[in-house]
Amino acid sequence: MRKFLCFFTVVLIIIFLTFVILSAAENDKINYVGTNTCRLCHEPQTQSLIRSLHWKKGIKNSPLSDKGCETCHGPGATHVRAGGGAKKDLVTFTRSERPEDKSRVCLNCHENSPSISSWDASLHKKNDVSCEDCHTIHTNSRLNLKNTQPAMCTSCHKEVRSQLARQSHHPVAEGKVKCTDCHTTHGGFGKHMLNADSIPDLCYTCHAEKKGPYAFEHPPVAENCGTCHQVHGSNHGNLLDSKVPQLCESCHNIGAGHTSRAYTQQHGFSGLATANKNKFFARGCLNCHGNIHGSNRDPSFLR
Ligand code: HEC
Ligand code: HEC
Ligand code: HEC
Ligand code: HEC
Ligand code: HEC
Ligand code: HEC
Ligand code: HEC
Ligand code: HEC
Ligand code: HEC
Ligand code: HEC
Predict the structure, then answer these.
(1) Cα–chain-centroid distance for residue 222?
(2) Residue located nearest, by CA, to atom 43 of ligand 5
(3) CA 39 – CA 45 distance, rounded (Å)
(4) Alpha carbon distance 110, 97 (integer Å)
C-alpha cells in the first residue's frame, strides 16, 4: 500500500511538472508576437536597426538571433492586442521606468565585456544614469552613441563645459583630447572614474616627460598634479590653480628678502612700497626655479 502511494505521488508530480512546462511554453508563444508583427506598425524603428551590429546576421548572441525586437522590449502581445500604446510587459526605455530595470536589459548580454564589468561601481549607475542615457539603439552611429563627445557628456556636466572654456584648458572642444581618454564612463573603482590608478599615472600617459625619477624631486608633483593644476581648465596660464607666486607661497614661507616676494618686510604694502621695490613681476619664482617638476642638477630646481 505504502509503495503504491509513493508511486502515485511521483506520477502526480510528473504530470504536474509537464503541465507547468507546456503551459509556460504556450505562454511564451502567446506573449511573444515576433519581429514581423512589430514591423507592421514600426517600420522606421526596424529600418534604423538593420545596419547596426545588433541586427547583423552571423553575429552570435545578437538580439536578431534571439527574440528580435522583444529581446529588449519584452513580450509584446498585450501591446499589440491593444493596437499599440505603452502597455504593461513592455520595456519602453522611457523616464517612467526604473534605471536599473532598463540597464538590466542590456547587461543581460553585456555584463561580461571588460569595459562594463565594473558598472556596479560606477558613479553613473549609483546616480540613476542608465545605458540609454548615452546610447541609442535605433541608429547606426558609431558605438551607438546618442551624440559625439564632448557634447554628449557636457549636456549633463555643464560645469565641466564652462571649465573647458577657460583661457587655459585641455583641448577637448578642439577635438585633440576626449573625456574618455581620462575617464571610464562605465565605471571604475577610483574616485572620479579615472582611466588610471592615480592622477599622476593618468597624466604621465600623455606627459611622460614629467615622470622622473629626478635626483631632486619636488614632493607635491609625484603626489598629485591636481595640487597645482586644475585639469579641465583655469583662468591662469598652464592650468594653474592660482598665480605664481601665490601658488608657491601657499606652501612656502620663504624668508624676507628672498627675491620675487611681493614686498620685503621693510617695504609693506602700506609703508614704503613703491613700484621698484615690488618684485612681483613676470614669472615670479619661475624666473629662477624653472624646473619646477623636478631636476637632476639642482636641489632648488634652478634653471
Ligand atoms: C498595431 C500596431 C502596433 C504593433 C503591431 C506594435 N506596436 Fe508598438 N506602438 C504602436 C503605437 C500606435 C504606439 C504609440 C503609442 C503611444 O505613443 O502611446 C506604439 C509605441 C511603442 C513603443 C513606445 C512606447 C512609448 O511609451 O514611448 C514601443 C517601445 C513599442 N511600441 C514597441 C513595440 C514592439 C516591440 C512591438 C512588437 C512586439 C510593437 N510595438 C508592435 C503600435 C503598434
Ligand atoms: C541579446 C543580446 C544583446 C542585448 C540585449 C543588447 N546587446 Fe548590445 N550588442 C550585442 C552584440 C552581440 C553586439 C556586437 C558584438 C559585441 O560587441 O559583442 C553588441 C554591440 C553593442 C555595442 C557596440 C556597437 C559598436 O558599434 O561597436 C553597444 C554600444 C551596445 N551593444 C549597447 C547595447 C545597449 C545600450 C543595450 C541595451 C539597450 C544592448 N546593447 C543590448 C548583444 C546585445
Ligand atoms: C555616461 C555615458 C554612458 C553610459 C551611461 C553607458 N555608456 Fe557605454 N559607452 C559610452 C561611451 C562614451 C563609449 C565609447 C567609449 C570610447 O569611445 O572609448 C561606450 C562604449 C560602449 C560599448 C562598446 C565598447 C566596449 O567598451 O565594449 C558597449 C558595448 C557599451 N558602451 C555598453 C553599455 C551598456 C550595456 C551600458 C549600461 C549598463 C552603458 N554602455 C552605459 C558611454 C556610456
Ligand atoms: C538592443 C535592444 C533593442 C532592440 C533589439 C530593439 N529596441 Fe527599440 N528601443 C530600444 C531602446 C534602448 C529605445 C529607447 C530609445 C533609443 O535608445 O533609441 C528603443 C525605442 C523604441 C521605440 C520608441 C522610440 C521611438 O524611436 O519612437 C520603438 C517604437 C521601438 N524601440 C521599436 C522597436 C522595434 C519595432 C524593434 C525591432 C525591429 C526594436 N525596437 C528593437 C532598444 C531596442
Ligand atoms: C586630461 C584629462 C581629463 C579630461 C580630458 C577630462 N577630465 Fe574630467 N577630470 C579629470 C581629473 C584628473 C579629475 C579629478 C580632478 C581633481 O581631483 O582635482 C576630473 C574630474 C571630473 C569630474 C568631477 C569633478 C568636477 O570637476 O566636477 C567630472 C564630472 C568630470 N571630470 C567630467 C569630465 C567630462 C564630462 C569631460 C569631457 C567634457 C572631462 N571630464 C574631461 C581629468 C580629465
Ligand atoms: C544623463 C546625464 C549624464 C551624462 C550624459 C553623462 N553623465 Fe557623468 N554623471 C552624471 C551624474 C548624475 C553623475 C553623478 C553626480 C555628479 O557627480 O555629478 C555623473 C558622474 C560623473 C563622473 C564622476 C564625478 C565625480 O564627482 O567624481 C564623471 C568623471 C563623469 N560623470 C563623466 C562623464 C563622461 C565622460 C560622460 C560622457 C561620456 C558623462 N559623464 C555623461 C550624469 C551624466
Ligand atoms: C590624453 C592625453 C592627455 C592626458 C591624459 C593629459 N593631458 Fe595635459 N595636455 C594634453 C594635450 C594634447 C595638451 C595641449 C598641448 C598643446 O597644445 O601643445 C595638454 C596640455 C596640458 C597643459 C598645458 C596647458 C596650457 O595652457 O598650455 C598642462 C598644464 C597639462 N596638460 C597638465 C595635465 C595634467 C596635470 C594631467 C593629468 C591630470 C594631464 N595634463 C593629462 C594631453 C593630455
Ligand atoms: C608644485 C606645483 C605643481 C605641481 C604639483 C605640478 N605642476 Fe605642472 N606646472 C607647474 C607650474 C608652475 C608650471 C608652469 C611652468 C613654467 O611656466 O615653466 C607647470 C606647467 C606644466 C605643464 C605645461 C608646461 C610644460 O612644462 O610642459 C605641464 C604639461 C605640467 N605642468 C604637467 C604636470 C604634471 C603631469 C604634474 C603631475 C605629475 C604636474 N604638472 C604637477 C606647477 C606644478
Ligand atoms: C603643495 C605645497 C607646495 C607647493 C604649492 C609648492 N611647493 Fe615647493 N616644496 C614643497 C615641499 C613639501 C618641498 C620639500 C620641502 C623640503 O624638503 O624641506 C618643496 C621643495 C621646494 C624647493 C626645494 C627646497 C630646498 O630645500 O631646496 C623649492 C626651490 C621649491 N619647493 C619651490 C617652489 C616653487 C617655486 C613653487 C611654486 C611654483 C612651489 N615650490 C610650490 C611643497 C610645495
Ligand atoms: C632671482 C632668482 C630667484 C627667485 C626669483 C626666487 N628664488 Fe628661491 N631660490 C633662489 C636660489 C638661488 C636659491 C638657492 C639658495 C641656496 O641654495 O642657498 C633659492 C632657494 C629657494 C628655496 C629653498 C631654500 C629656502 O630658502 O627655503 C625655496 C623654498 C625657494 N627658493 C622658493 C622660492 C619661491 C616660492 C619664490 C617665489 C616667491 C622664489 N624662490 C623666487 C633664487 C630665486
Answers:
(1) 25
(2) 182
(3) 8
(4) 20
Q: In the predicted model, what is the mean pLDDT of residues 221-242?
A: 96
* Ligand 8 pocket member 221 (CB < 6 A): yes
Ligand 6 centre to CA of 184 (Å) is 10
What is 127-171 written as a DSSP string? Answer: TT--HHHHB-SSS--GGGBSS-TTHHHHTT-HHHHHHHTSSEE-S
Condensed to tens digits (0 to 9), the pLDDT of residues 39-91 reads 999 999 999 998 888 998 888 889 998 999 999 999 999 999 888 887 778 99
Ligand 1 centroid to Cα of residue 103, in Å, is: 20
Beta strands in the chain (DSSP E): 168-169, 233-234
HSE-CB at 72 with a 13 A cutoff on CA atoms is 25
226 lines ligand 5 (CB under 6 A): yes
CB atoms within 10 A of CB 62: 17
